[in-house]
Amino acid sequence: MNISVENDIKIIKMGDKGPNLLSVDRAQKIIQELNYDDCKAVIILGNEKVFSAGLNLKDLSNAKDPKEVSLIFSTLGNLLNACREFPGPVISIVGGHAIAGGCLLALASDYRYGMHGLHRMGLNEMAIGIDLPPDMLKIISHSISRDNLFEVATQCKMYTPSEALKKGLINEMVGNRFSGKKKATSSALLKAKKLAEFYINAGEPFVRLKQSLMRDTDFDYQTLIDNWFSPSTQEKVKSVMSSLAKK
Prior knowledge:
Elements: E1 2-6, E2 9-13, H1 24-33, E3 41-45, E4 50-52, H2 57-62, H3 66-85, E5 90-94, E6 97-99, H4 101-107, E7 111-115, E8 121-122, H5 134-143, H6 146-154, H7 161-167, E9 172-174, H8 181-202, H9 204-214, H10 221-228, H11 231-245
Helix pairs in contact: 1-3
């Protein structure tokens, strides 16, 4: 993995080549990088062929002790929850195959950029008889509409980028069918940085909003009032009012 930080945005490149399998080691390393003290936003990407092919089936097949199997699945669950619980925005750039656990990792992100190509994205757990626990299904249901949820979760369809966009697995496509993956990835990274900076600038209100979106939370309206009178909010409001006055 290659990790870099730019203006409080941590960029996690899982691998320049290969399937970017979510081994226990790699998943734990990503979890460690999801540290709000180190950065305020995270961008995750794979390579031009594969975002992530999910869990390493060889590791699962070779695991004879139930504790080993439990560790593999629980670590994936911890990784997905770490993405959802990270206070800042988590953005994925899906420029290659995102299969099973790799698809779940993308769906655990707050926003997903995709690009045209021959790669596929989808969940194939049912095809090999693997359960989708409720916490993972909840992650899927946050992104996929009720109309498409059953199909995406159970029918093991591998979607083209355009189909993934229609189903909600991808939020936004970058580039066109004739632009190369390298150029499209660079464009997606620029877009992701800009989006991340927007949410970083939003500050604590975004953190509270993300927490509310992820789970039921108590909200004290005094927080809203106190935030309204904070110097940073007042400065932003004055800037908006000034720009409106010029129109």
